[in-house]
Amino acid sequence: MIKYFLLLLFISSAAFACDISFSLNKENGTSIKNASLVIDNKKLTLNANGETNLVDINKGTYYIEIYENDELIDTQTLSIDCTTKHYQIIVLNDTTEKLEEVIIRSQSIKQKLENSPFSVQVIDMKTQYDRSGDVGNLLNRAAGIKVRTNGNLGSETQINLGGLQGKAIRIFKDGIPVELFGHGFNIGTIPTNMLERVEVYKGAMPVYLASDALGGGINLVTRNPTSNLMEASYEIGSFNTHRVTANVFITGKNPSHYVGLNTAYNYSDNNYKVNTPFIASETGQKYYKEVKRFHDATKSYYGEVFTGIRGKKWADDVKFSFIFSDFYKEIQNDSEMGKVYGKPFNKEQNYAALVSYKKELLDKRLKINSTFNYSHFNTRLIDTATVRYDWDGKIILKDQVIGEINKGGSNQRLRYDLFSSRISATYEIKDNHFVELGELFYYQRRKGSDPLGAVSPVYNIDVLTIPATYQKNILALALRSLWLDKKVESIFAVKHYNSKTEGFTTDKFNFAWQSSKSNNLLGYLGGFKWNNDQFLTKLSYEYATRLPDEFEVFGDGVLIKENLDLNPEKSHNVNLNAQYVYGNKKNNGTVATNLFYRKVKDAIFLQPDIPYNRYINFHQVEIKGIEIEATYNINNQIDFGFNGTYQDIRRINEKAEFKIYEGSRVANIPFLFGNVFLNGHLNNILKTKDRLSLRWNLNYVHRFYLTDIPKSQEPSLFGEATEVSSELIIPNDGRLGQFSHDIGLYYQFSNKKIRTSLEMMNLGNEKLYDNFNVQKPGRSIHFKIIYNFF
Fold it and tell me: Which residues belong to the signal peptide in this entry (predicted)?
């Protein structure tokens, strides 16, 4: 039956379509170097003669974008009647004035997403390629986002968004959960010039992602060139930091065939100075001294080779990718920087294969997008030292019990097999009314060993040798409609969440047995937006669910025990957005605000215990917050603005033994933060079409609490800390908050093949903290160069 249905779809599609060819020249007869066309949302690369073919296009009038070296140079409309087989396109020699109007009038992908009913912010990465560092640095400057790390390059990274953080915020690469690609591809390791854009969803998530995010998500969209590309970059920075990237995209003699490569290499000693405690041998008194970190090096590699075919009758785009990633990380301290280590390290290798398929059918009323992925991971955790270190790297004890992190040590090997599929479809049932479907399937199997790890006292076997499986399936179905000449848009959706876990579990007496658990839950969402030329208003609501992940369920086999009885987290999420745009094409500004509310039940927290920790369902949390952002642009030469976020995150409905904390702030989460920025640009400095830019950013994080403080003992927002609470506040040195200045100088050569930048981070060399008392790097300097071979 399915075969007949698919055959009918293809026949129906072909009945209304034809095959045509194009040739492209300037009006003076000269060819256009590295030319490409975008027509009907399809990207076509022209050959050396300025020709290309397009199959399976319907009769009608189309809007065409024409690119040279991946830069828009002209736009035209073209009527296709399916009787003419070849179309000659002539580009005017000077299209500058026309393009200024087109850019103002046309709606980019960024604008389309931000004008949807969802609370979403899109960061266009194409203007950020010359920035040093990773994607996390840029996200930290966006409104409502706080990127939190445990150090420098390669350290653990958490996203705080709308009052929620960590695993409540899902991260994707091109719509696929990012965990399938390994630590070589994540917020803290991927350089800026490997992405086309970053989509930040605050609250309700779009149907096509079919996610179980509790508080929003981030979609990292990789580059998708329209013409041949060969680009390499190199960055060198403080703390012996080196980053290398290469991006390649090549079409064959037939422009519909393409191959490519994306790769990134990162290395850093991370040997920045930190203020650490020492004990005086004479007096036994604690004192602090500034020393360099000595065991925090990171090395990561990510490589993706792909090939594909575009513009065929049977597929608009089909792509095959093969991925390898490698990650090495030394471990110097615990999560609170209270213990120092000198030998432990993590290693990870990942191999993955991915297939994606896109097709429009039924006179373009049906759009299908699917991706299938398989990954295999090998991970190691080595903690076998019998010596102990001080913060300056000196050995202070010998012949100790094996293991610095955990008494007894660890020689852990884990093997993961992961499979994921994502299928999304949109069908236009009538004009301006669409049915949308999204489905995400995820499966993981873990098996390993640790001769120094946990052993079942009943079966006398290594618990990691018993396979543990985790599976989830999320299905979303929506109705989306456009009203009043597309000024009003609405969406209503239902979601079904299913998960199943099977593994080895133990009780507090260490009795062990095979166990399994499954979950079946429903969720729903609704969204509404209204906009005209200047005003945009949105309202969205979602009853969201986050399924416990495999780490929370199975633990790590070292310090964290399994808990197969974990319940999913649930939250009521509301967002109200308003935006006002004013000015003209030369001088313009934007003012935007976002009010958000979250009410979380069965929040998952790590419960400390001796000798093992375990994730449990504990708090109920209520979150009320506001984001404000204002920007202004002067003649595309100066732009400036600010953003600020306040989020009131409180514990509610506490049990009797915890009533003292009723209404208290949730610990270790910043609740007031923001940015101020100023950018200046000058053109034609040394040569025609070169560009010099200066960018400055100030980041502020208000003091927040290291641990739980009863509401009655909280200091006022801008008041002095009390004696009781001063040691429980970050920072605890009397500062009201943490200021960090970043400044950079950027130059693009006139041939546009070379870009360089020189940046200084944390200009004032301030002591900065994110998680608990883990200190971040001081002042650092970075130089980056990008070379485009075409």
Answer: 1-17
Q: Which two tokens stand for residue 509?
A: 């007496």
pTM, to two decimals: 0.87
Calculate the CA 673 to chain-centre distance.
20
Among 91, 108, 136, which residue terminates a domain? 91
Q: 3-class SS at 112?
A: helix
In this structure, the number of other CB atoms found within 10 A of the CB of residue 37 comes to 23
Cα separation of 603 and 597, whole Å? 16
Please name the residues in contact with 400: beta carbons below 8 A apart, sequence gap of 6 or more: 386, 387, 388
Domain coverage including residue 58? 18-91
Q: Are 211 and 151 in contact (CB under 8 A)?
A: no
CB atoms within 10 A of CB 644: 17
Picking from 300, 277, 302, the residue whose alpha carbon sits closest to that of residue 287 is 277
Task: Give me the CATH number covering residue 492.
Answer: 2.40.170.20
The single residue listed with the structure tokens 């990718």 is 321
Q: Three-class SS string for 348-389?
A: EEEEEEEEEEEEEECCCCEEEEEEEEEEEEEEEEEECCCCEE
Work out the percent of the chain whose per-residue pLDDT is above 90: 57
Task: Examine residue 105 and state whether it is found in any structural domain, yes or no.
Answer: no
The answer to whether residues 403 and 383 touch, using CB atoms and an 8 Å cutoff, is yes
Task: Tell me whether residue 458 is in a domain.
Answer: yes
Question: What DSSP character marks residue 181?
Answer: G
Of the residues 69, 91, 113, which one is the last residue of a structural domain? 91
- 336-377 per-position pLDDT tens digit: 788 899 999 999 999 999 999 999 999 889 999 999 999 999
For residue 752, what are the contacts with CB-CB under 8 A and spacing of at least 6? 69, 689, 788
Among candidate residues 193, 178, 179, the one with its CA nearest the CA of residue 131: 193
What is the CATH number for 28? 2.60.40.1120
Query: What pLDDT score does 95 carry?
Result: 47
Per 3-state DSSP, what percentage of the chain is helix, strand, and coil (rounded to 5)?
Answer: 10, 55, 35
Inform me whether the pLDDT recorded for 508 exceeds 60.
Answer: no
Shared-domain flag, residues 87 and 234: no
Helices (H), ranges, 73-196: 96-105, 109-114, 135-139
Q: Does residue 442 sit in helix, strand or coil? A: strand
